[in-house]
Amino acid sequence: MGYAVAYSMSMVSSPASFNNLHRIALQFQSCKAGKFIPLKVKHLLGGPMSCKRDSIDFQERTSPNEVRKEIERCYGLIGRLGRGIVYLGSSRMGPDHPHYLQALQLGSKAAGLLDCTSWTGAGPGLMDAVIKGAMQVGKPVGGFKISKEAGGEWTATNFHPYLPPETYITCRFFSARKHGFVDAVVRNSKSDRTAVVGLPGGIGTLDEIFEILALIQLQRIGSELPVPFLLMNYDGFYSKLLDFLDDCRSWGTLANGEIASLCKVCNTNDEALAYLANFYDLPSSW
After folding, report:
1. How many CB atoms are located within 10 Å of the residue 52 CB?
2. Which end of the chain is more exposed for a tag (fewer CB within 10 A), N or C?
3. If DSSP codes are grouped into helix, strand and coil, which group holds residue 57?
4. Distances in Å between the alpha carbon of 284 and those of 102, 270, 272?
5. Whole-angstrom Cα distance, residue 53 to residue 126?
6. List of the chain residues with pLDDT < 70
7. Is this prediction's pTM over 0.90?
8. For residues 148 and 191, what is the distance between their CA atoms, to the nearest angstrom?
9. Distance CA 50, CA 40 (A)
10. Range 25-32, long-range pairs (CB < 8 A, 24+ positions)
């Protein structure tokens, strides 16, 4: 596709009044499949730009203020429920998947071990498994739901099917949701027991995992004390990813031992629980 553009400007006569330029009119010609389609755009300086093909008005973006408000809601929820373990994982691995049962058992035992709130994206799949595991042992849960999960399940409504409404919020913005995940694991005193657990997952899970790892790497997570990060390599799920990261080391984009300094790779729940017990100097009573 090609474009031809012509423009004209009408302005006041005085050069000193250039900032009061009244109107810029642009006419585009779009060449597609050998045909030219005229597109007219008028820009009134000091006001919104409008595209006159469909009379679309481009108003000032309000999302920065909306994101800030949503972040404040996430912080308020954490303030009410308390910090704890954040679980990142697939929304597509349902109760018939073997990783679902493993996540349920980990959610139950880890909540009992650290005696803290379990945080998830309040969605289906492995998030649902963790929630049910924590609730089985009577520990609090909290969630930052998003209005659309991959896979399409639970997306017809912004409401969770069984969690009390005071235990989660439905986020419109991913950035606000991620702020919530990070703040929920901040440790400001030795009595704070938090962790990040990366369960098996797809693109969304990997996005969240690497964003938090980058914050830990750059010491920008906002925590005064270290936060343990566990990557659950159930049945070798993340083995090829770990091989890729090892290749990154050979290419010089990661330092020797850098991944090991950022997270603990665990192949089983028992390995994860033993790591957390050792990290927080707790008795191994699970």
Report:
1. 13
2. N
3. strand
4. 19, 10, 11
5. 46
6. 1-60, 148-157, 285-286
7. no
8. 35
9. 9
10. 28/3, 28/4, 29/3, 29/4, 29/5, 30/1, 30/2, 30/3, 31/1, 31/2, 31/3, 31/4, 32/1
On whether the CB atoms of residues 131 and 143 are closer than 8 A, the answer is yes
Q: Which three-class secondary structure state does DSSP give residue 117?
A: strand
Token readout for 266 is 């665990």
| CA-to-CA dists, residue 251 to 3, 83, 222, 246, 255, angstroms | 42, 38, 30, 9, 10
Give dist(CA 107, CA 282) in Å, integer.
Answer: 17
CB 234 within 8 A of CB 267: yes
Task: Write down the residue that tokens 């657990």 correspond to.
Answer: 197
User: Residue 63: its pLDDT value, please?
Assistant: 85
Question: Please, are residues 85 and 186 in contact by the beta-carbon 8 Å criterion?
Answer: no
Three-state SS annotation for 235-272: HHCCHHHHHHHHHHHHHCCCCCCHHHHHCEEECCHHHH
Which residues neighbour 49 within 8 Å (Cβ) at sequence distance 6 or greater? Answer: 41, 42, 43, 57, 58
Angle (CA) 125 126 132, round 5°: 95
CA–CA distance, 232 with 199 (Å, rounded to integer): 5
What does the pLDDT read at residue 147?
77
